[in-house]
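ugh ok fine here u go
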Amino acid sequence: MQFQQLQYFVAVAETRHFTRAADLVHVAQPSLSQQIKALERELGADLFLRARGNITLTDAGEALLPLARRILADAETARHEVQELVQLRGGRVRLGATPSLCTGLLPDVLRAFHDRYPGIRLLIEEGGSHDLVRELARGALDLALVVLPLPTPSPALTTVELLREDLVVVSSPDAAKPGNGRRTVRVADLEGERLVMFRHGYDLRELTVAACRAEGFEPDFAVEGGEMDAVLGFVRAGLGVAVVPRMVAARSGRGLRVTPLARPGLHRTIALAHRSDVAPPRAARELQRMLLER
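structure:
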């Protein structure tokens, strides 16, 4: 019994017509008929009752049909699983993330992913949530780490909350402590402090400015327009203080004083996003799993 013979048998059983079945499986009708007859000889039983214009299954055919369908389905599953495994030996994952997440969250996860799947190229695009959402929507990214709520809610995206991260105040150890030296700083204490501020479009900029305005004052910028590394460098140089994620502060090394924000503090919610209408590739789904289980 050959796999191809089972394909032909199922095609005839479902169409009840030899010519239409041959078209369905892309083979000449005489070849299909010969293979069905060969299958019947091997099984020792007729599978079809052939009357003019009417093809019906015999009892043997009725018994074989669900078994043949199961064998064909199992073969398709096996083919799919092997292809999925092949995808994890090569290919690429296009991941978008905000710069602060590239500094804080991603290094350990990407190292673990690379160690497990060294053949997969990781293409990282840094940007604000607004830019990343746009890139996801046009198919330029497989996954993106974004800050919730999204600047423009999109029903075309699926988001899964990943973590809720505290923000802290960083300053130079050589400068005066913010908040008059207290162990924690209130947002209101940032009034009168010179802030090192991120560029426009940066999620942390919008969050910090909104928090200051909620306390009734406009923040005073010493320097503005930088990315994460530049902001941390300016703070180390004593140009001012900055509000950054706790993970970034923890990874920033020496040269920074870290002061927590007093309750209720400031937080941001990080989510993993992908398009709702297109399933991410297998390699991207594996990276997604590792991020969610980190």
